[in-house]
UniProtKB/TrEMBL annotation:
One Gene Ontology cellular component annotation held by this UniProt entry: cytoplasm
Organism: Vreelandella sedimenti
A Pfam family hit: Epimerase
Limits of the NAD-dependent epimerase/dehydratase domain: 5-169
Protein name in UniProt: SDR family oxidoreductase
Lineage, broadest ranks: Bacteria, Pseudomonadati, Pseudomonadota, Gammaproteobacteria, Oceanospirillales
Stored InterPro entries: Epimerase_deHydtase, NAD(P)-bd_dom_sf, NAD(P)-dependent_oxidoreduct
CDD domains to which the protein is assigned, alphabetical: SDR_a4 (cd05266)
C-alpha cells in the first residue's frame, strides 16, 4: 500500500529516509524552512517555519499516514532547543490531531543524551533518564509530550550519528589527535544509513500489524571506548597518534547502549559496529586515497 510520509525537519537524515521510502513506492513530503536542498530528490517540498505554525489551523500541515519529526536546533542554546523540540513538536501534534484522518504514528527522533550515566553503565529503554545538560532535559520534555499525547507516538533515541559528511572524528585522528585511555569514555555510535533504516523498518513493522513500543534506542551493536575507535581509525589512516585529547571528553557522559529492543523487531544493522561503518565512510569520502597521496 502506498503511504504518505511527512518528514518534518527534512535534512540529512530526512532526505536519506525519503530516498528509501520513495524507492518503496511511497509519497514523501519534506518540510523545512529552506526547501532548496530538496530539489531533484523526488521529495515533495513544503516550506514552513515551525515557529509560525498555526496550531488552530488543521490545513497548515498536510495529512499523512506517518509523521517523522527530525528537527535540528539552529544553535546549541537553550532557547533554540526549547523552540525546536518541546515547543515545535507540541505545535505539530496540536495540528495533526485535528485532521479528519490523523496519522497512524508520529516518530520523534531524539538522542541518547537523555541518559546522563557517566560510569560506563549499560542503559536500555527502561533505564532512568538523568540528563546532565539543557539539551538532554529538553529532549526528555519533548519525548514525554509525544508519549503522553493521544496520537500514537514512538521515540527513537539515536546515539552519536556518523556517516558521509559527518567525519569530524576522522579529521581529528588524521591530525594525530586521539582520546586518552583513561578516564574510560564509552562511545555509542550509529551510521546515518542505520538511522534511516530503523525508521523505515518501524513503519513497515507497524504496517505488518505489529505493535510498536513507546521508545527504542538506536545504536549499533558494539559500545566501545572513544580511545579504541580513534586508535582503529589511526591504523586505517596509517597515522601516528601525537596528541592526547583530554578536556573535551571529561564533560561527556559514558554509558553503553543496549539495542536489543530494536533487534527483537527483526531489524538487521547495515553497519553493526564502527568498523564496518567507518570503513564505508573512509572509502566513500576518499580518505584512504588522500592518505596514499
Amino acid at each position: 500500500m502506498k503511504l504518505t510520509v511527512l518528514i518534518i525537519g527534512c535534512g540529512d537524515i530526512g532526505i536519506n529516509l525519503g530516498h528509501e521510502l520513495l524507492e518503496e513506492g511511497h509519497q514523501v513530503i519534506g518540510l523545512r524552512r529552506n526547501v532548496e536542498a530538496l530539489k531533484d530528490t523526488g521529495i515533495t517540498p513544503l516550506a514552513l517555519d515551525l515557529d509560525s505554525l498555526e496550531e488552530a489551523d488543521a490545513k497548515s500541515l498536510p495529512q499523512a499516514d506517518y509523521v517523522v519529526y527530525t528537527v535540528s536546533a539552529d544553535r546549541f542554546e537553550e532557547s533554540a532547543y526549547q523552540s525546536a523540540y518541546p515547543e515545535g513538536l507540541k505545535r505539530v501534534l496540536s495540528v495533526m490531531e485535528q485532521h479528519k484522518t490523523p496519522p497512524r504514528r508520529v516518530f520523534f527522533v531524539s538522542s541518547t543524551s537523555v541518559h546522563g550515566q557517566q560510569e560506563g553503565e549499560v542503559v536500555n529503554e527502561e533505564s532512568p533518564t538523568d540528563p546532565t545538560s539543557f539539551s538532554g532535559t529538553l529532549m526528555c520534555e519533548a519525548e514525554q509530550a509525544l508519549i503522553n499525547h493521544p496520537l500514537p507516538g514512538t521515540v527513537i533515541r539515536f546515539s552519536g550519528i556518523y556517516g558521509p559528511g559527518r567525519d569530524r572524528l576522522i579529521h581529528q585522528v588524521a591530525e594525530g589527535r586521539v582520546a586518552a585511555i583513561t578516564p574510560v569514555i564509552y562511545s555509542n555510535r550509529i551510521h546515518r544509513d542505520d538511522c534511516t533504516g530503523i525508521i523505515a523498518h518501524l513503519i513497515r513493522y507497524q504496517e505488518g500489524g505489529e505493535t510498536l513500543a513507546d521508545i527504542y534506542l538506536g545504536s549499533d551493536c558494539e559500545p566501545v571506548t572513544m580511545h579504541n575507535v580513534m586508535m582503529w581509525l589511526a591504523e586505517q589512516l596509517k597515522v601516528e597518534a601525537t596528541e592526547t585529547m583530554q578536556s573535551p571528553l571529561r564533560r561527556r557522559a559514558s554509558k553503553r547502549c543496549d539495542n536489543q529492543r530494536i533487534i527483537d523487531t527483526g531489524y538487521q544493522f547495515r553497519f553493526p559496529s564502527y568498523r564496518e561503518g567507518y570503513a564505508q565512510v573512509l572509502k566513500e569520502g576518499g580518505f584512504l586515497e588522500l592518505n596514499k597521496a
